[in-house]
Amino acid sequence: ENDSQQENLSGRETQDVQLELCDKELWNQFSSVGTEMIVTKTGRRMFPGYRIKVSGLNPDEKYCLMMDIVNVDENRYKFLHGEWAVAGRGEAHHPQRFFLHPDSPAKGSKWMNESISFHKVKLTNSVEQNIDGKVVLNSMHRYQPRVHIVRTDDVYNIRTLPMYTFAFPQTVFITVTAYQNDEVTKLKINNNPFAKGFRDEGARSKKTKLE
Amino acid sequence: ENDSQQENLSGRETQDVQLELCDKELWNQFSSVGTEMIVTKTGRRMFPGYRIKVSGLNPDEKYCLMMDIVNVDENRYKFLHGEWAVAGRGEAHHPQRFFLHPDSPAKGSKWMNESISFHKVKLTNSVEQNIDGKVVLNSMHRYQPRVHIVRTDDVYNIRTLPMYTFAFPQTVFITVTAYQNDEVTKLKINNNPFAKGFRDEGARSKKTKLE
DNA sequence: GACCTTCTCACCTACGTGTTAAGC
DNA sequence: TCGCTTAACACGTAGGTGAGAAGG
């Protein structure tokens, strides 16, 4: 089972470099109703968080891992009658920005030893926020997160080197400034620990507390 | 004014590599009463936090910065009659562990551009906690934090390379599991934001809140 | 009006503090 | 008893949630 796409390949790795998506079941739940991710001026994390496991690297070579988020198509979308529909031509996309994983560079053995998280990446719709750790996206557009692996210990010249690139179909999402689909909201509230305050727990509703 | 000690020196830097201690006044206040740092099983941060500024690096060369904490002498101490006194021979010290600054490696220009903080280092008295980001120390012993600068982008072979080593006399401290000197406690409470809850603010004492 | 964005808010998680009482 | 250590605790800082009202 390997539902990732691999675009570039060089020698020196002992076997096929493979990526596995963590929390795949959760991603699938969101994907089945149409994943939405909120963008704000100051930046908002993704939920589910983007985490992966990697295998097939050379344990003793050094690698850099990065993430980026690219547009899936050239459309703008709207949520109409309970469904997402194309609503005209999309806006121009901002220059692609790589989010370098802070542990980079590190040996293959280190990357393969633990799950790798990009959960600190923040999505923003403000061009002024094009700073470290944030990705500028257009609202109401469809996007695909990707992971890139580069065999190098030179953080400064990554763009010039060959890379392995992976993308998981179930991580595609549409950007919003407020959730459109109630099913998405329910999944977020029920699964994101930071939204626990909005979970309906029978008798302990807000109204009860006010009495 | 340069009260740091420099042990090793190579070529290639355009001028003398110098280190400056941040919050020097605060460190001096603690040092004048005898700085104490708490060690716990799970690990405790240092306060004041260890922050420095560096100058004299080659802006285009890459450097790694690390910190360690070494014993000042071979004594064990006790707090007696309001003063620290030697109380016999010290225990064996644990193997020295370097805390690599997470931004390593980075260019000299990057290091010199901002203050460099090691505030996430945690002090522990438990050998089982000898893991990343923690330093194992013996309680009731006297220690000296140090900073090391190595000109390399190779994180894995740092120990084999020449390094600049700095130490500031006013950062020497004695480890404790509970504060011994009330003056130290007062300074901690009055200066550490996380201890704000213990500050006496006139009428707003705990007893007042209970009424 | 319909749609989308922005801002403030209460409510969480996560964790850094010294205190206190208990343990050894 | 005394000295030192441990664990639970209340009270902070810091920041991630969707809701809801206001704005464009």
Number of helices of chain A: 4
Number of distinct beta strands of chain A = 15
Shape of chain A: globular
Largest interface: A-B, 9 and 7 residues
Estimate the helix proportion of chain A, in percent: 10-25%
Structural class of chain A: alpha+beta
Cα distance, first to last residue of chain A?
A: 54 Å
Strand content of chain A: 25-35%
**Most strands sheet of chain A:** 7 strands, mixed
Low-confidence stretches of chain A: 1-9, 202-211
Looking at how many chains there are and whether they match, the oligomeric state comes to homodimer
Report the mean per-residue pLDDT of chain A as an integer.
88
Radius of gyration of chain A: 19 Å
Task: Summarize, please.
Two copies of one chain form a homodimer. Chain A is an alpha+beta fold and 211 residues long. Chain A has helices at residues 24-33, 108-113, 182-191, 206-210, and strands at 18-21, 36-38, 44-45, 51-55, 62-71, 75-80, 83-89, 99-100, 106-107, 116-117, 122-124, 134-136, 142-150, 164-167, 173-176.
